[in-house]
């Protein structure tokens, strides 16, 4: 079984892009307007990384992926990117199961 898994991991991978997908359409529009659009670049990278995960592969740089996800969540919720986490908000997960938080 391990040999079969290695065989598939070593095969050439293909990323298929649906040109009719709303995200792809928006990316194309943004790149046509500004080829250096940082939002388009970050979104394209996120699409590639999520496609990688959906296909069952591992990411090489998971901390960077996690940082990007947090940044997107902050932007969606309107939280400033530079707002620091309050130390009082940290919860010990082992103790949280025993006590009301």
Describe this structure in words.
It is built from 5 helices and no strands. It has 101 residues and is an all-alpha fold. Helix 2 packs antiparallel against helix 3 (38-54). The longest helix is centred in the middle third of the chain and has 17 residues, at 38-54. The N and C termini lie far apart (46 Å). The mean pLDDT is 83.
SSE order and pairing:
Layout: H1 2-9, H2 22-33, H3 38-54, H4 62-77, H5 93-96
Helix pairs in contact: 2-3
Brief summary of the model shown:
With 101 residues, the protein is mostly helical.
Write down the Rg.
Answer: 19 Å
Q: Main β-sheet, in a few words?
A: none
Helix content: 55-70%
**What CATH architecture label of the domain at 16-80 applies?**
Up-down Bundle
- What is the beta-strand fraction? under 5%
Uncertain runs with pLDDT below 50, 5 residues or more?
Answer: none
Q: Indicate the mean pLDDT.
A: 83
- Mass-distribution shape: flat
Q: State the name of the first-level CATH class of the domain at 16-80.
A: Mainly Alpha
- Number of distinct beta strands: 0
First-to-last CA distance:
46 Å
Q: What is the CATH superfamily label of the domain at 16-80?
A: Heat shock protein 90, C-terminal domain
Number of helices: 5
CATH topology of the domain at 16-80: Four Helix Bundle (Hemerythrin (Met), subunit A)
